[in-house]
Specification:
about 375 residues; six-stranded mixed sheet; four-stranded mixed sheet
């Protein structure tokens, strides 16, 4: 699998060779390196990493026997971030500069992660803190599970040395500064470099296909992710309750059995058209409701909710003696309970509604089937 390292860098290009050294020690050298920086950062990278004869990148490759063709890394891979007019920014000095740098991070993260047969390493150790934060944001939005965000930890005494780029071979003494900024000499064999993997949530798989057709800024992607949880109507038969959008209603066994019957019919309908409103598959005419099989199903639901049938249920107007007259009476009571507990707006979604005109009136729930859940 091909690896791409995307790194941010300021005026200290040491972070590039330190990251490379740590990856080399883990056997995970990248195939391509891209460095996002400012105009001044690019000048520092060119002067220190690629200068003729003593460039630290070339020295690193020579010390660790890495062929120059193994890694695609050259001065052309040092990318200066530019504004809308194509002008290179000198530094991240204000909010506008930060937004320009963020967009560059989004572009390169998007491009690098489009190849599913690759992995991308994001090094956030270099440059100003805001530069690393921008790259980390881009990684979380466009990164995949195989990608990684890294930070580099260098021995404190070597971290700020202008002479230290990586542990050279063979080790040698270099000049460091103590806490009082006084120079002293120390051998590089005492230097340690650790690559710390930063945990992150890869959000790319949660973005819809349309949002992955082109580069978007974080606010656009995050707005698409921060959607209100899709409402689910829960018909809880064991507790005799309806739940919808964090509200609930207690229903009598009679009303609950009638409502559960129509919910089952809607969920079991072969139509499954979310835009369906009153079609002959999802909605029932009165003669269909009163068919023996359907009356038996309503009775079964009632007996499951209330195992011992009471006299009211068995009366001429009860649920177990359902007719066109008492059906309409029960439907009116049910819809009033929905109005009382969920309000007029939500009642329009939840009610046991009627469609059409007599004699072909049909009854049913207009709520989409996938938004209905029955708990026994």
């Amino acid at each position: 699998m091909k690896r791409t390292l995307i790194s941010v860098c300021g005026l200290a290009p040491q972070v590039i060779t330190e990251t490379l050294y740590a990856l080399h020690q883990q056997g995970r050298l990248p195939d391509t390196i891209k460095v996002l920086t400012t105009r001044k950062g690019k000048e520092a990278c060119h002067a220190q990493l690629f200068s003729s004869g003593d460039g630290q990148y070339h020295k690193f490759c020579a010390d660790y026997a890495i062929e120059s063709t193994v890694i695609n890394f050259s001065p052309q891979n040092i990318i200066t971030v530019t504004d809308d007019r194509g002008r290179s920014i000198d530094d991240i000095a204000n909010e506008d500069d930060n937004r320009i740098f963020l967009r560059a991070c989004m572009i390169h993260a998007y491009e690098a992660s489009n190849n599913s047969e690759s992995e991308v390493f994001y090094s956030i150790a270099g440059g100003r803190k805001t530069m690393g934060a921008c790259l980390a944001a881009a990684a979380q939005l466009y990164g995949r599970p195989q990608d990684r965000i890294f930070h580099v930890l260098v021995s404190p005494e070597f971290e700020n040395s202008r002479e230290f780029y990586y542990p050279p071979l063979p080790p040698r003494e270099i000049t460091l500064l103590d806490e009082k900024r006084q120079p002293y000499r120390k051998n590089t064999r005492f230097a340690t470099i650790q690559l710390v993997t930063m945990p992150f949530v890869a959000l790319r798989d949660k973005l819809s296909g349309g949002l992955l057709q082109q580069v978007e800024m974080p606010e656009t992607l995050l707005m698409a992710l921060v959607e209100e949880e899709k409402p689910l109507l829960t018909i809880d038969l064991s507790h005799k309750k309806l739940r919808w959008k964090r509200r609930e209603a207690d229903l009598s066994p009679t009303l609950l059995a009638l409502y559960a019957f129509f919910a089952q019919w809607k969920k079991g309908s072969p139509c499954q058209d979310v835009a369906c409103r009153g079609c002959p598959i999802c909605f029932l005419e009165m003669p269909q409701i009163l068919e023996p099989d359907n009356l038996e199903q309503i009775a079964t639901l009632y007996q499951r909710i209330r195992p011992s049938c009471d006299a009211e249920a068995m009366s001429d107007t009860g649920i177990l003696s359902l007719s066109a007259e008492n059906f309409n009476s029960l439907r009116s009571k049910l819809n009033r309970r929905l109005l009382e507990n969920f309000g007029a707006v939500e009642k329009e979604y939840l009610e046991l509604t009627s469609q059409g005109i007599k004699p072909g009136v049909r009854y049913g729930l207009q709520l989409d089937p996938e938004k209905i859940q029955l708990i026994w």
